[in-house]
Amino acid sequence: MDLSKPIAVNFSPSSVAEEILQNVRTICSTVVGSVPLDRDFGMSMDMLDQPINLSRMLFQSAVIQALAKYEPRAKLVSIDFSTDEESVNQGITMPRLTLEIQE
């Protein structure tokens, strides 16, 4: 799931798995405080501008908390971060989430 590219919302997903993955994408790409009727929805961005190791741990914690609250059918199995040296040196990290879907 690449969060850097915009994707249309499918209001009629063809499967429960597609619905859950779409929900996870929405949760992970929404900043806490940006949804007017639910200011807690989304993920905290406390990890921004932190040292890379701290940033990764804060991101993992934010994902776990957000999914537990807003999409409990998606269980986080692991998070792998890009190890491209150029990206890491620029402070850019791309997480890849591995989920277990419970329908």
Structure, explained:
The protein is an alpha+beta fold and about 100 residues long. The protein has a single domain, classed as Nuclear Transport Factor 2, Chain: A (Roll), CATH 3.10.450.40. It is about 35% helix and about 15% strand. It is built from 3 helices and 2 strands; from the N terminus they run ααβαβ. Strands 1-2 form a two-stranded antiparallel sheet. It is globular and about 40 Å long. The two termini are about 20 Å apart.
What's the rounded overall pLDDT mean?
87
- By DSSP, the count of extended strands is 2
**Structural class per helix/strand content?**
alpha+beta
- CATH topology name, in short, is Nuclear Transport Factor 2, Chain: A
Radius of gyration (CA) equals 14 Å
Distance N terminus to C terminus? 19 Å
Major sheet attributes:
2 strands, antiparallel
Order of helices and strands: HHEHE
Strand order of the largest sheet: 1-2
CATH class: Alpha Beta
Number of domains: 1
CATH architecture: Roll
How many separate helices?
Answer: 3
Low-confidence stretches: none
Question: Which descriptor suits the 3D outline?
Answer: globular
Helical residues, percent: 25-40%
Strand content bin: 5-15%
